[in-house]
Specification:
By secondary structure, the chain is of the alpha/beta class. Helices cover 49% and strands 12% of the residues.
Amino acid sequence: MGNDGRIGWIGCGRMGAAMATRLIEGGDDVTVTNRTRAKAEALGVIGATVVETPRDLADREIVFVMVSADQDVLEVTVGENGVLANPDVAPAILVDSSTISAETSAMVREACERRGTKFLAAPVSGNPKVVAAGQLTLAVSGEEDAFDQVKPYLSRIGAGVTYVGAGEVARLVKICHNMFLGVVAQSLSEIMVLAESNGIKRSALLEFINNSILGSPFSRYKTPAFVNLDFSPTFTTSLLRKDFNLGMAAAKATSASMPLAALTTELVTSAVGAGYGGADFAALLAEQARSAGLVLEPEGLVVDDGLATPPRATA
């Protein structure tokens, strides 16, 4: 499957638009729709075809969904004007990258099966800036032959595309990822407070870590937020708490012991309670400092986040 596939795209918010843009600018035939038409029209300017409703995408070979929540996914798939509502035709494959529950995902999968459509759950790790830099990662679950068909498109959207199994397991993979994210962020917060309490600048500590074997794309990416205390949300502390709660429920169901995750769940909950629910989860640093009686100040430095936007792929 090359650049001649007929693609439908539902959801042109910041994340959906960034992902669809990579396909459009890569030469794919993409038709888009969005509840607020103006957002879809912005993609029309760069070459997408714009239609009114998801139902209008039923004749597309592959349809991607990237919307906000469970109810939105149900509306654009099985709703009155959903992509599965046309009685005469349905997509061959539906790929959902929205952040939704495994229960809702299973409902959509069942609806797809009734229409002869293969369904892939494909949650992502990243934000629009990460997408633009070509560093988005995706975990995908469902029928493996459907994954093989869609993988060339997913590889144009992101750098890492991993098939993780059947059914809804990709949803749990995403939760595991976010729990790890939280544990690492909390650990970084603790050592930054320790260092600063002893007169070491956060920027100096993070520069050392980023240049060491422990440095990672994540530690580099979050360095500007930690150094300058910029907690503009990329992923809120409240959303992180939700994923920890879901992960701990899954752990309880299988008797998996997760002592570090359990403690981090409480620390994330404390940060939400301290008023950082709507802030980026990097605010775990502020809550850790507060509990240590340390007053943090932005360092006011220009710090590289490690992301560089590569040239767009061409047809």
